[in-house]
């Protein structure tokens, strides 16, 4: 149970690469925070800096109000009271399950009877009570990861740091462990920081998610906040899988370059010509500026090519061709070729087939004023 406060935290690697820059983050007591971002965005660098394996080159880190790293202060990893679990469940092959799990207490000189009692308790918590005498080689991947988790929590850490801790596991085991992990951290009131590049995992597990890009935090928010009010096109694209359409903003009207979104659309956040536009730049200024509209897969409906439509902004617009449709838990994750743009749409209620011609109706788009250079299609 702890708060973690990161103020202006930065890390520059020895070769000059900026791993982290200006990180401001307050993680609450008992909160489950996910660090989400594409490969190379700095998730592991941030976690290792919190753990104490990396020294920040600027800013400070405090745990429960006590400075761990900052100007003139440095507390080594073993004195920070944190538990850690990594992707490769680094457990010792020569020790059995109980030996692995009890190791941190043995190191700390905890008496044997007390140690054994605590090992039994934690093994029970992670569902491994019957496996205490097994060697790691005789365990499944999921069981080994539970051993790593048990070892991380045995010394009642202030916070739990997880680096892609579930990524090596197959579904549905991963889904099950996800639920168990969440239940465990709730039960223990543990603050947790969970690094993942899996959007569904971050959104499904965490109280709040911090989205990283190029060593900088783009947005911190609840899963709903990130989906409903992304702060920029990168967040919209990475978190919601939105398709980005560059265009020009004049007098609150967005003129997309793409012929599918072909009208001066909307004004403010009013529904106009079928598409509802959301975003601050819509209200500000009459100067013509480049902008980006982000269209989430859930904001598009598809009509069969021949069907009559009553939404005037799309009548006569270009049709789109289904290029792939993958069945998922929430519907068909469908990709379309829409006059050269790849539009991603979540289709429910019918089965799209490769080659089908359809007419996309865009219900809603988020508009951001950004340099056109920021739009590189999908920010993955
Ligand atoms: N020791 C190092 N020296 C120099 N640069 C490094 C070092 N370690 C990492 N980097 C760079 O820092 C950036 C952030 O790396 P980091 O491992 O934190 O990313 P990540 O978001 O965890 O990525 P992934 O999802 O691929 O694990 C990357 O560009 C990486 O190449």
From TrEMBL:
Residues of the ABC transporter domain: 4-239
Protein origin, superkingdom: Bacteria
Coiled-coil annotated spans: none
Keywords, ordered alphabetically: ATP-binding, Nucleotide-binding, Transport
Pfam families attached to this UniProt entry: ABC_tran (PF00005)
GO molecular function, one term: ATP hydrolysis activity
Cellular component, GO, one term: ATP-binding cassette (ABC) transporter complex
Stored PANTHER family: SPERMIDINE/PUTRESCINE IMPORT ATP-BINDING PROTEIN POTA, SPERMIDINE_PUTRESCINE IMPORT ATP-BINDING PROTEIN POTA
Protein name: Multiple sugar-binding transport, ATP-binding protein
